[in-house]
């Protein structure tokens, strides 16, 4: 299961609003049953003007959450409620998913700013962890306490006084399985008889990194799509007139330098996707030599069948790669959609990246 990648910038935007003294409400699906438009963990930010960022699946579910969030900002009271997605087929606005969600609206996320700040800092370091939200009712008010827990042994001495400490084993299991879960104190609950407290556990992992060698027309177009497909985008080129924010505004990181050594300097792991689209055969070969043995999730290189065949012979004859290493390369890159234009080529590459990421996610969820 791929975990709500929209969180890449949502928490950053949340902190920006908090630091700017602006009120904001954070709405999150914390539980779901049956067929629903989004799964637990998906969130949206709302200001007094309405939706700011994120999604809860759209439709009347999101509209209802927007209405409640705007009202919560005025009352400064958080809310926990259930939304039924069953409706009459004849209703023009009704939802017919057939399920229900439990929604949390946090009207005062500023009270837990340290947890969100720690989360954002961990994401900058590409460190996974768990956002734990403890919910309990005090009088007629919903009290929220959030903690960011890094992927270190849970339940250590310094955390035993926290309300989530008695759920440390479950939290550790959620992190290991990358599974978002809701736990109830004292067993299951109903809307008429809420439990003393609830724990919502959100494992959050760094987004997969997309490394694009080449900041030309195709590299720029792939960066644009990669950003919208929720990759962390790094673009490399040895030409500063191409490798700059004005030319590649969708890149999270831009590196200027010799392509081969620059790629070699990067930490490449099983969450790294590499696209080689430089300006020529020589630079493609340089980039490929730098990463062909690395344990990347995906490695693709642009080129005609003639070019790929010649380069394969060169790499094997000179001992730069084994047949097994070469066979894992997607070359020519992209899914065959008879692409001709730069934009079509970028779409074919983005589709292949999405396909491979989905395969990796399914493999992980099946283990």
Describe the 3D structure.
By secondary structure, the chain is an alpha/beta fold. It has two domains: about 5-205, no CATH class; about 210-365, Rossmann fold, CATH 3.40.50.720. It is about 35% helix and about 25% strand. The protein contains ten helices and 14 strands. It has helices spanning about 5-20, 60-75, 115-125, 170-175, 215-230, 260-265, 280-290, 305-315, 325, 340-365; strands at about 25-35, 45, 50-55, 80-85, 100-105, 130-140, 140-150, 180-185, 195-205, 210-215, 230-235, 255, 270-275, 300. The chain has a five-stranded antiparallel β-sheet. The protein has a five-stranded parallel β-sheet with strand order 12-11-10-13-14, with helices on both faces. Helix 1 (about 5-20) crosses helix 3 (about 115-125).
Give a topology summary.
Blueprint: H1 7-19, E1 25-33, E2 43-47, E3 50-54, H2 59-75, E4 79-84, E5 100-106, H3 113-124, E6 129-138, E7 141-150, H4 168-177, E8 181-184, E9 197-204, E10 209-213, H5 217-228, E11 232-237, E12 253-256, H6 259-264, E13 272-276, H7 281-291, E14 298-301, H8 305-317, H9 323-327, H10 342-366
Parallel strand pairs: 10-11, 10-13, 11-12, 13-14
Antiparallel strand pairs: 1-2, 1-5, 2-3, 4-5, 6-7, 6-9, 8-9
Helix pairs in contact: 1-3, 5-10
The number of helical segments is 10
Q: By helix and strand content, what is the structural category?
A: alpha/beta
Note poorly predicted spans: 1-6, 88-95
The gyration radius over C-alpha positions equals 23 Å
Number of domains: 2
Please, what is the average pLDDT?
Answer: 86
Major beta sheet summary? 5 strands, antiparallel
The beta-strand count equals: 14
Task: Identify the strand order in the major beta sheet.
Answer: 3-2-1-5-4
| Morphology | elongated
Order of helices and strands: HEEEHEEHEEHEEEHEEHEHEHHH
What is the rounded distance between the termini? 11 Å
Report the helical percentage. 25-40%
Strand content: 15-25%
């Amino acid at each position: 299961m791929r975990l709500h990648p929209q969180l890449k910038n949502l928490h950053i935007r949340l902190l920006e609003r908090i630091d700017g003294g602006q009120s904001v409400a954070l709405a999150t699906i914390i539980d779901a049953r049956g067929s629903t438009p989004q799964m637990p963990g998906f969130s949206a930010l709302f200001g007094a003007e309405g939706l700011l960022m994120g999604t809860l699946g759209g439709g009347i579910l999101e509209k209802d959450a927007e209405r409640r969030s705007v009202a919560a900002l005025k009352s400064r009271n958080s809310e926990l409620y259930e939304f039924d997605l069953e409706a009459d087929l004849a209703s023009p606005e009704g939802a017919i998913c057939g399920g229900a969600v439990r929604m949390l609206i946090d009207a005062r996320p500023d009270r837990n700013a340290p947890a969100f700040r720690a989360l954002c800092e961990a994401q900058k370091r590409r460190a996974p962890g768990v956002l734990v939200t403890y919910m309990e009712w005090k009088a007629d008010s919903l009290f929220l306490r959030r903690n960011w827990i890094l992927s270190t042994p849970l339940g250590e001495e310094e955390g035993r006084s926290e309300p989530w400490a008695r759920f440390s084993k479950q939290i550790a299991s959620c992190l290991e399985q990358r599974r978002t879960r809701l736990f109830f104190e004292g067993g299951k609950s109903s809307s008429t008889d809420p439990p003393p407290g609830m724990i919502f556990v959100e494992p959050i992992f760094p987004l997969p990194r997309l490394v694009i060698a080449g900041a030309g027309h195709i590299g720029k177009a792939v960066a644009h799509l990669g950003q919208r497909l929720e990759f962390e985008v790094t673009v490399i080129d040895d030409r500063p007139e191409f490798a700059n924010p004005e030319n590649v505004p969708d890149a999270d990181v831009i590196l200027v330098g010799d392509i081969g050594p620059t790629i070699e300097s990067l930490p490449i792991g099983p969450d790294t996707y590499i696209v080689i689209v430089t300006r020529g055969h020589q630079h493609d070969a340089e980039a490929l030599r730098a990463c062909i043995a690395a344990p990347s999730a995906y490695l693709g290189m642009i080129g005609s069948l003639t070019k790929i065949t010649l380069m394969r012979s060169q790499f094997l004859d000179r001992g730069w790669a084994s047949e097994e290493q070469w066979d894992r390369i997607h070359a020519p890159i992209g899914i065959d959609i008879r692409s001709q234009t730069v934009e079509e080529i970028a779409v074919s590459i983005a589709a292949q990246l999405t396909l491979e990421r989905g395969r990796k996610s399914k493999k992980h969820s099946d283990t």
